[in-house]
Amino acid sequence: MKQKDYLNPLNFGALALFLASATAYFFLYNTEVYDNSRFIGSFNQPIAEAQQEPKKLAALKALQGKGLEWAHYQFVDAIQDQDAEVVGLYVDAGMVLKDRSAIMTRLIEAPESWITLVERLGWDNETRLSGLFPVPRHLDALDDPFNEIKERYIVPHDMAFKNHYLEFKKIHDKWQHEKELELANVEVMCEQNTRCKIKNTPGILVEYEKKKPIAPTKDLILWLHPNITLMSAAILLKRPGVVDYLEQKGVTSRANEMVMSDQVVVIFEVSPTGDISYPEGITVKNLKLEERQTGQQTGSHF
User: Fold this and answer.
1) Whether pLDDT at 59 is above 90
2) What is this structure's pTM?
3) Going by DSSP bridges, is the β-strand pair 265-270/276-277 parallel, antiparallel, or unpaired?
């Protein structure tokens, strides 16, 4: 009879000791973790490239001296924290802001200092200030007008769903009638023969279940992704100083987009007085039903 092999408890102890030693080495002797050298080292290439640009070089070294990283996310963090000194250093060092939502966030949260910020960032021109800017979902300052858009969209959406369901109901009623007719034929054919009914009825039920129309499900409508112009935001936020500033820069567009929870994009405009309109109307999904699947989505205008 073979003797069973058992794991030696000493092996577990040795393994635990090894893992503890490796962890201690990683945190105590790994310079990337302990000295933050990976982040500090991120400045090596920018500094090497800025040797002939004293202002940029000084800004890079100042950022490095603060223990920061040459990384876009830290630039954005400084903007959101309203750390003017660090923002200025990143700008002087040549960092370019790529996150347009940061501009919108500061307009909503700190409109008093917004003009100073965009000028420090070098965004004080028509090209930079034009176009659509995403509104972060966690900000609620514009919830009222956004909810107004949602409610306006729900009206034609519900109308389209009602028509959609009525079309389904016709198909379902036809299917139900045909199934009941087949079952009635079995009753006539089998008369009082129970075995005959047991033999023929299940097959009919199975076949008709395969052809049963699928009932449509109504979407829960929410507004998800607003993308609006700075002019529209300034008007809705009632910031006349920002409105005047944007007009001086030639920024006048008030056309915006809102992506709804059913992925339909609503185009809307904001008037100078803050009224919302829909120059292209509102397009909603209109599903064409078939017996076992919904058809392709098409658009309907209301």
Assistant:
1) yes
2) 0.75
3) antiparallel
